[in-house]
Amino acid sequence: MKNTLFILILTILLTIPSITLTSAEVITDGLVSYWTFDKIDIINDTAKDVWGENNATIHGDPNTATGIVGEAFKFDGKNDYVDLTTLGDFGEQLGKSTFEAWIRTTNTTDWMTLINTNGHLCPNWGIQINARKTKDALVPAERMLSFNHSLTDGKQCFPIALGDYSPVFDGKWHHIVYILDFEIDDAGGRGQERVYINSIRRPRSTTNVQEGFGFFPFTAPIILGARKLDDTAVSFFKGYIDEVRIYDRPLTENQIIKNYAARTQFSVHPKQKLTTFWGSLKQ
Ligand SMILES: [Ca+2]
Ligand SMILES: [Ca+2]
Questions:
Q1: Residue 108 — very low, low, confident or very high, per pLDDT cuts 50/70/90?
Q2: What is the Cα–Cα distance from 86 to 98, expressed in whole angstroms?
Q3: What is the pTM of this model?
Q4: How many C-beta neighbours within 10 Å does residue 35 have?
Q5: Cα(176) to centroid of ligand 1, in Å?
Q6: What is the Å distance from ligand 1's center to 71 Cα?
C-alpha cells in the first residue's frame, strides 16, 4: 500500500512539470511566413522567415530588445523598417488572409505605420496607427488603429478605413490581428475585415464592395514599420514589434485566442525550406 502511494505521488510530481512547461504553439495551418525577430534569426540585415522562404531585409538600424517572445525589434521612428518581400504570389491571393503581430508603443505624436504595401499608391493595403486627432485622418478620432485596404475601379483608389478607440499606447505589449475575409465575385465581391486586439474582437462591419469596384491584389513588397514607395519611406513606426505572422486564410476566433496565448513556435517541421541561403549567410 505504501509503495502504491509512493508511486502515485511520484507519478503526480513527474507529471506536473510537463504540464506547466507545455506552452501552446502557434497555429501553422495556412501559415505563409513567420518572422520572430529573435537574435538567433537575424544575420546582418536579414531577418529569417522561420516557416516560409521569405527572409526579410532590415533597413535603418532597429535595435534588438526584449520581446514578448525572445527578442523583438525596437524602431526609433526615424528610418527603421523591414521589407517582408512580396511573399511570392501572396499579393494575388490577398482576399483571404490574416496579419498578426505584437506591438508595444507610447508614441502619441503622429500617424505611424504598422504595415503597408505600395506606399500611397493604388492598390494599397495597410494598417496605420494614430494616437491623436489630425485633420487629414481618414477617420479623425483619437487613439485609432486605422485598418484599410483599397478598392479600385481602375482609375481611383478607395480606401476602406476602419477603426475605433484602441488602448494600445500604454507601453505594454498588445497582440494585433487583422483579418481580410473577402469573396471576390463578378459583382466585385463582399466580405468582412475583422480586427482583434489581445484576442478580443473590435466592433466591425461587413463591407459590401460595390459593382465595378473590384478588390485588387498587390504585387509590391510588404513593408513593416513604414510606408514606402520607390526610394522614399515615410510614417515610421516608433516602438517595438515582435512575432509577425501572415496566413493565407482568416484565422478563427479560437485560433486567435490560441496564438495570443502561444509563447513557443511550433514542433511540426516547416514545409521544405531553402536552408542553403540561410546557411550561406551564416558563413
Ligand atoms: Ca521574438
Ligand atoms: Ca534608426
A1: confident
A2: 15
A3: 0.83
A4: 27
A5: 15
A6: 4
